[in-house]
Amino acid sequence: MSFKSHDNANDISIFDAYSMLPKRINDPIHGLMEFDDWTLSFIDTPHFQRLRNIKQLGTTYYVFPGASHNRFEHCLGTAYLANTLVKRIQVTQPNYKVEKDLECVTLAALCHDLGHGPFSHTFDNTFIPKARKGFKWRHEDASLMMFDHLWENHCKDTIDLDTDDVKFIKSLITGNVCSGRSRYLFDIVANNTNSIDVDKFDYLNRDCYYLGMKSVFDFSRLMRFSRVIDDQIAYYFKESYSIYELFHTRYSLYKKVYYHRVGKAIEYMLCDAMAEADPILEISKAVDDPEKYLKLDDTILNQIEFSTDPRLEKSRKLIKRIRTRDLYRFVDEYIIPLKLKDHLTETKVNAREIIAHQSDNDKLGENDVIVDRIKLNYAKKNENPVDCVKFYNQYEIDKAFYLDKSQVSYLVPEQYEETIIRIFTRDDSKRKAVQESFRKLLNVYDSDNDDPNSSGSVGYTLPKEFSSPPKKRPKYRAKA
Questions:
Q1: What percent of the chain has pLDDT above 70?
Q2: How far apart are CA 426 and CA 329, in angstroms?
Q3: Which of 210, 204, 166, 170 is nearest to 70 (CA)?
Q4: Between 369 and which of 40, 48, 250, 351 could a Cys-Cys bridge form, CB atoms 3.0 to 4.6 Å apart?
Q5: What would the 3-class secondary structure string for 260-329 be?
Q6: Alpha helices in 99-186 (DSSP H)
Q7: pTM, entire model
């Protein structure tokens, strides 16, 4: 909200003066965050408020009860950090002081996750590929769609942004560098060069906080020791190991939390439930229509669960199984060694190939087996992202250079990506049969092992006489 015009500054009312103060929001990660009126114009819309009903970590909340935070607060935190970083650069390096840059970067950070669907990445990574096979779509595509819809319906007539500004904001959301603006601005929200951005600064620390985990990565130091050199953000060279800690923290969270086996089992159950309901509710078609997408969030689960439509019976049963913890079962996992990376492809390890190795009486069908293929890395696939980071020292603060990892530590990783095949079953009674079949298939390619059942993880090996334990736990009676 802007000041009203007055001939005499003393005539400004207390209400007018108070209304011009930035909006303050108390956040457990960043403390008091301030937002100007042009930011509030975006926040106070149905498009942004929708993010209150989308869990930041999706189905992880069903495993870690503390992870109850939503995309709403993450986007606020990301916008606050983006605004803080740009202001700091503009103060310390006045040549980069452009007011519109500050506004555009802040709004891009605020709106970068507008396109997330129900249960965050569960929707775009698992459900959409299942419901609309061959359809190329990412949540960033929906973020652009929802930003356009928000802009046209709520902010176009009230915010001083022109067509080029809007295009610039959308480029910042996707990370695709466009001409006509300072290059360094594209390093702030979605950094496609080295993946160091305020989005990670917020979600790594926010997720650790709500998960009850300690984070050794300190984003505030990186922001404090950053400066623009050659129109890119560079960092003080002594922060190089902190950057490795950033990427290791990200890897650890993916390894231990984001891809937690129980969370993934629930994710597949939710996707099956939504896929069964899709022909009736047309959930997957909402990605084509911003009006329909505006109504799509985590409450879709309740919509299915409480429906009396007989056509949704299969979906309701799956949701009931989630409520009663009768979950799909994790069976096995295999970390693919480098020598087999090009051999164990999706065409060679899939449900059809696994059941082809079953024993005579196993009675396995393709629907009994789920193959989950995940890639864990340092955010740049099999590359070291720090190789793309520019540094400076205290003697020549405007001269950038790259650091070889040997100049940082000999204990940093040699390999930056691993591929893991994980197997789940929809039928717990077939867990043993699925594991044996999977390991027989692996043995075809891993000829160094003589035992056909030793290719999987030793920790997950089921006993020879294994049978699924009963769901209910035995009653406990306290001694008198």
A1: 91
A2: 7
A3: 210
A4: 351
A5: CHHHHHHHHHHHHHHHHHHHHHCCHHHHHCHHHHCCCCCCHHHHHHCCCCHHHHHHHHHHHHHHCCCCCE
A6: 99-111, 121, 128-131, 139-150, 163-174
A7: 0.92
Q: What is the mean pLDDT of residues 39-51?
A: 97
Cross-strand pairs, 422: 333, 372
Beta-sheet strands, E only, within 155-251? 226-229, 232-236
Q: Which among 294, 427, 443, 448 is positioned nearest to 366, based on CA atoms? A: 427
Of the candidate ranges 110-124, 269-283, 456-470, the one whose mean pLDDT is the lowest: 456-470
Per-residue pLDDT tens digits for 399-430: 999 999 999 999 999 999 999 999 999 999 99
DSSP label at residue 367: G
| Non-local CB neighbours of 281 within 8 Å, separated by 6+ positions | 300, 303, 304, 312
Sign of CA dihedral 21, 27, 30, 31: positive
Helix 163-174 × helix 99-111 angle, to 10°: 50
**What is the edge-to-edge ordering of all strands in the sheet holding 226-229?**
226-229, 232-236, 390-392
Tokens 């301030």 sit at which residue?
34
Query: Measured between alpha carbons, how far is residue 436 from residues 61, 171, 199, 455 in Å?
Result: 31, 49, 42, 10
Contact (CB, 8 A) for 343 and 445:
yes
Query: Do residues 372 and 264 touch, judged by C-beta distance below 8 A?
Result: yes
Q: Evaluate whether 417 touches 377 at the Cβ level (below 8 Å).
A: yes
Catalytic positions: 139
Tokens for 464? 């020879």
The two tokens of residue 407 are 């100049």
CB 428 within 8 A of CB 418: no
Measured distance between the N- and C-terminal CA atoms of the chain, rounded to whole angstroms:
69
